[in-house]
Amino acid sequence: MANPVELMEELGIGQGQIGDNLPEVTEAFIQMDNAAYIEGELERKYKELIGLGIAVAIGCHYCMSIHVKQGLMHGANRDEILEAAAVGVAFGGSPAWANMCTTVLRALDEWED
Known about the structure:
By secondary structure, the protein is an all-alpha fold.
């Protein structure tokens, strides 16, 4: 499995290619995604932790990596990230457990201070 930096690079390249072919769809997705993470009643840190739990549950390695990174950038600590990932495991079962034990830990090791 790729490390978190490689995952983010691969995702960026793919998004650029899709953006070239489907610019309207790409722009609409980016606007929606950005809007979802604007601070409102929930601080950005908590939105990233929610995103991480969902990513673990559905098995999106790209999403897990970015939400760990963004969560750390917005003030989450290791224990909060692992707790949020554990909520994802409660919904996703054994595959989600494997994701937390590999992708989430790998991303924490890469981006944690």
